[in-house]
Design a protein that fits this description.
The protein is of the alpha+beta class and 242 residues long. It is 28% helix and 33% strand. The relative contact order is 0.12.
Length: 242
Amino acid sequence: MKLKIDHKSAVPLHVQAEQLLRSLISKEEYINGKFLPKEVDLANQLAISRSTLRQSLNKLVYEGLLVRKKGVGTKVAEQIIDSKSMNWLSFSQEMKARGIPIKNFELHISWELPSEIIANFFEIKTDRKILKLERVRGSEQGPIVYFVSYFHPRIGLSGEEDFMRPLYEILEQDYSAVATLSKEEITAQAADKFISKKLEIGISEPVLLRKRFVFDQGDRPMEYNVGYYRSDKFKYIVESKR
């Protein structure tokens, strides 16, 4: 790919270089792991100083789009799924927003008696079975998260639904149950044998444990969700404004 900067443009050189780099790293060969040309070669090709080029590269590194390996070079960073605390999206929506195709590795449906904690959340008795949905989801590169969801029997799920569809699409379109509020708890823990097998990681490797307490448009509890995320594939962003 021929890279060229317009030195007569009013757009700053480092901004033009950044735009060209963004276009370059979108190419399949670089997404698949090819290292970028050396800084000195890129700077010569663009007819700019290395410090100007480095300013553009640093911005992409800061954004998590590039990674530098000392003595080796710069390459496109492996995509990590992120979630913002002020921008609640389902896993399907998070993946779609980043253009990453979803792969479902496992899907299990069962009816179980709720634990006391879950029964208290739903405000039901522990002798009433509820639907449990287990899914291992990720990308072509492998599993990212193991989800366990429990649903309030009020919704009316039968267990015969096509859970290959986006979950909240099923709840909203088929059952008029609109998820409007999510309260979350985020903790870290070491993977046990069961979780390590689900996520294809080593025992005791760190995972992010994310509990979601989902409420409908009437502020009624509708889903109790627990997600176990690979820490090398997912990050959680907290935004604070004042």
